[in-house]
């Protein structure tokens, strides 16, 4: 894949990031001066399309320092995989183990990053939107394109935030003096903002990607995220229609990319992928999960409850789960990302992919009573993985939903909290099998554990915030 920007534009983007990204190390939610000294002014940043696209590049970068697309250190995947009991933490260092045992304290250092990193990205997005709005230096078509892209990114950030923390401060401006004291918005308000942003993005984005690869969102990136959001909101027909639209677009394919290459540059399955800008190491997920030697005990080992979901001959197991032999025993670890060092072809961070769209369409179809369609979508993924068709009873909605859930566990394991969010979002729906709900499958479970606590540092700095139940 060709790089999005020239070296000159990368330098300009780096300058902007220095000015904007101090939030990650800053203790307050949003406290960034409008024009920090020694930095280029906002007028210069948004003087023309060339300098503006440099600011846009920073939004889509994926770097070890946390700039751009959040969760670049793999922490999001690690925390939610622990909470969903996909993995167990073997190291006694740090606060990671708290996510597995549901004993997360508000002073957990990892929790602070899960809060701060997306807000850094949201600030950056809001700054770009402010910089291009009513800007006579930019063409209307350019502003339309960038506005759509930025709103997809903001919706993506808030979707993950609301599923981790519930209602959070809804920040849509760059006024740090106001933002730093914003109270929590309701969950409904956050979802409404997400859907409003995505609706606008769908109206503004073209079918074609604006640059090589699938880094900057196109129309179907926005629609794919809409499908996921509507699935979580139990808007089954909307979720079905949107996933169906992406599948039938003809832009993506799950049959031409081997499972070993799904997360690499140029994956035909990738709806939204961002390159990893690190010349010294690989992806954050690999550095979290992948052992540095073949006989070492991994920091995160796959739980038996997940291992038993893989059937004999499932190529997802052989390609996406690694194994070390430790003291004569097989010890399994997540291996979707294997790049401890930069690779060729490069590993790209997958945000949305076609496999998930089939599962969204399948689940929505099952909820709508279209059980044959649901199993047909499940079977597409099973066949791609080298398995035969599902044997679920087509006369039972619960049985078909169980088949969808099982396929989500093996297809989407270790990806963006899907397992953790699944057991939370379906816990009150009796159409799903009881053995797939949090209260049954997660040890030491209490209803309050479905959300993480807000970081104590944020509560101390912003007295308008309130803690989630169960963590006071």
UniProtKB/TrEMBL annotation:
The keyword Signal applies. PROSITE patterns: PROKAR_LIPOPROTEIN. GO terms for cellular component: cell outer membrane. It holds the Pfam family SusD-like_3. Residues 347-471 form the RagB/SusD domain. Residues 90-231 form the SusD-like N-terminal domain. Keywords: Cell outer membrane, Membrane, Signal. Transmembrane segments: none annotated. Gene3D superfamilies: 1.25.40.390. It is found in: Cell outer membrane. Belongs to the SusD family. This is RagB/SusD family nutrient uptake outer membrane protein. The lineage of its organism: Bacteria, Pseudomonadati, Bacteroidota, Sphingobacteriia, Sphingobacteriales.
